[in-house]
Amino acid sequence: MNVLDLLKLDEGLRLKAYKDTLGNYTVGYGHLLGTDPKWADFSITYLEAERLLSEDLAKAKDGLANLAPWYPILDDVRQAVLIDMV
Fold first, then answer.
1. Which residues is 16 bridged to in the sheet?
2. Does the pLDDT at position 14 exceed 80?
3. C-alpha–C-alpha distance, residues 3 and 24, integer Å
4. How crowded is the C-beta side of 56, counted as CA atoms within 13 Å?
5. What is the pLDDT of residues 22-74, one digit of tens each?
6. Fewest Cβ atoms closer than 10 Å to its Cβ: which of 24, 28, 47, 78?
């Protein structure tokens, strides 16, 4: 299973914004919007959810590479687990 499949499985897809367990509005595959009530009626398309997931994945990889210099030398499975946690 690749990292995208893992994220999709763990996060699930919601096209209408919802509040997560911390009270943050979230949409798509776990894309954080924030706590502002303006997000309450926000919704996106499937293609927008895919784009947001791709952008979030790139940010997670960049963040891990900057935070943990050993991240790039890990195998794909270990990288996927860390990305999923981020």
1. 43
2. yes
3. 24
4. 23
5. 999 999 999 999 999 999 999 999 999 999 999 999 999 999 988 898 988 99
6. 47
Is 29 in contact with 60 (CB distance < 8 Å)?
A: no
Report DSSP state, residue 69: T
Residue of 11, 48, 50, 84 marked active site: 11
Catalytic member of 5, 10, 20, 55: 20
Question: Is 48 a residue of the active site?
Answer: no
Q: What is the DSSP string of 2-65?
A: -HHHHHHHHH--EEEEEE-TTS-EEEETTEEEES-GGGTT-B--HHHHHHHHHHHHHHHHHHHH
11 tagged catalytic: yes
In this prediction the pTM is 0.85
